[in-house]
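Sequence in, structure out. Go.
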Amino acid sequence: MIVPDQIVRTKRKTLAITVDSFGRLIVRAPIKCTEERINAFLQSKASWIEKYKNRARQSGVALPCGSVEGFSFPWLGGEYTVRTSGVSRVAVNQSTGEIKVPNEPFEKQCEKIRAKLKKEIKPYLEERVAYFSALMGVSVRSITVTQTKSRWGSCTAKNAVRFTFRLGYMPISVIDYVIVHELAHVSEKNHGKKFWAIVAKNCPDYQRKRAHLKSHGGYAELF
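Output:
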């Protein structure tokens, strides 16, 4: 029997399933849809579900489940391992790659880790934006770091750029691609040929970087 990780009931008329980047099976069903109908639908999609669960397992992405102790994740080209200790606030030991968090409830620990990572990545992004801005001959109005999970970066009509702190989970070269992508929007506010020509000039293998973002989208869910 296939057991879904989550069932979301809405006013929709049909059943739909997705397997996210962590391999979690999510069912979207009509409000009055019976468990029998859902189970039958899942059985009929068994091969599809297994295919995408295998793909998620191969990506190597994982989520901390109820405890952050010992959880490791990539960060700005390196790796951090979380350790719970008696510290009063989150502390990072760069030499050991450990990020120590207070002995508090799981959600509180995640909240504090988010705040720490958000603070850490801002000067790095500011430095890289300055570098690529000079290289590309553009300037931005401001740089903001957010916590959004829906997009890696954005550029407003007034040339203010925003990046989610979660971008730090990506390889350095992929972070650079996202920066180049958003800075290209300073000149081109669309995704037309001129836009992609600017991206290609400053990040020749951008297609590989885009593919990496797509296949590792699950990292946007960390913390």
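Check: The two ends are 31 Å apart (CA to CA). The longest helix spans residues 106-136.
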